[in-house]
Amino acid sequence: MREEFRYMAELPSTPPEQAWVRERLETLSVREGVVLTAAARRLPFESAADAINCLQSLDEYEVWPNTGSYEALGLAFLRSKTRMPENAFPFVDLAKTGRYYEEKNHGVFIGNCYIEYPKQNPQPVYRSRDAPLSEDNDWSVKLKLASPSVPDGVWLRLPGHDGKIIEESDEVMLALNELRVSSLENCILLEAKCILPEIGDLIRQYDSAAELVRDGDHLGIVLDEQGQGNPQWIEKFTAAMEYEDCRTLKLALDISQNLHCYDWVPYNDLKESAAGLLLDAGLSEELICSSGIDLTSYKSWLLENEGFLLSANNSGYICRNSQEFCRQFTPPTPEQPGMMIQ
Question: What is the pLDDT of residues 11-66, one digit of tens each?
Fold first, then answer.
């Protein structure tokens, strides 16, 4: 935990609140640390609840890397937010332009960055000690990267969340600046965590920090989109990983792109589905309701006889279908339709 934030875990709080803050601060990324410093300057924390709400809203702040002066801010603003031709830049008062941007978009300089505050104060997600603590689940992979200059390392949190390609994202750029290296290829992997508990040791799966960052960011985008909002997407994805005994990030990514290769029956739909089958067989609705048949167990029996497997969390039944499984992340292997991936 960074020393300047240690006080946040000692603010007035309950033991669970204190533990939540301490755990969250343990893997704070470089970008998050810069934003947290800016947020605390704007409105100092009076309790752990304040710190929890702030830590849950760090993505709502815009970070301008390498803009530690009004001149640099003005230049960055002109390049990214306007269509002014670059041949006009030498004639611009960049410091005045930077101050203009600050007036319109309030923020604060922290080190070599300008941190732009949200237009409106983020809505608190945690309001009282009687409410359940929020889950820190808006990430895919957390990496601790080191360099010869910074052997103890810094944390990187994925995905980038800023719409930039991952190599140019604020998360990566600020981590590289802190490590005093120019590329992810120059970084050493010290630790790695994945939001998916099924995934094994990421360090053993990757020789390259750059490749792991790209795959971790891709997983973050997949989890954010959740199949363009398809209902029960995460349950089906989790069940498919379980079905394939998935233990690597690359296989998880391939499965996420091939969910059409799995037939999925949510557990909550079993009763209605069984009733529909009996109606189609010619039974009356009155007889179905009065016969005392355990419709859920009946449908479960039918599915299991068709080769479906019940997920470990009982969210539904899943089975491979005959559609082709296309690999993008893992090496292609011979496989037969409907069989598990080896």
Answer: 998 999 999 999 999 999 999 999 999 999 998 999 999 999 999 999 999 999 99
Q: Measured between alpha carbons, how far apart are the two ends of the chain, in Å?
A: 41
* Spans of all domains in the chain: 3-116, 141-228, 230-342
- Which of 290, 322, 29 has its CA nearest to residue 153? 29
Beta-carbon-side half-sphere exposure of residue 320 (alpha carbons within 13 Å): 17
CA distance linking residue 234 with residue 140, whole number of Å: 13
In this prediction the pTM is 0.87
| φ, ψ dihedrals at 68, nearest 5° | -85, 10
Maximum Cα interatomic distance, the chain, rounded to a whole number of Å: 87
Q: Give 131's pLDDT tier (boundaries 50, 70, 90).
A: confident
How does strand 107-110 pair with strand 113-116?
antiparallel
Encode 131-149: b = buried (16+ Cβ within 10 Å), e = exposed: eebbeeebbbbbbbbbbee
Residue 127 pLDDT greater than 90, yes or no: no
CA distance 193 to 202: 7
SS3 content of the chain, % helix, strand, coil (to 5): 50, 15, 40
Which pair of structure tokens corresponds to residue 279?
Answer: 């109606």
> What single-letter amino acid sits at 60?
E
CA 140 to chain centre: 4
Give pLDDT tens digits for 184-206: 999 999 999 999 999 999 999 99
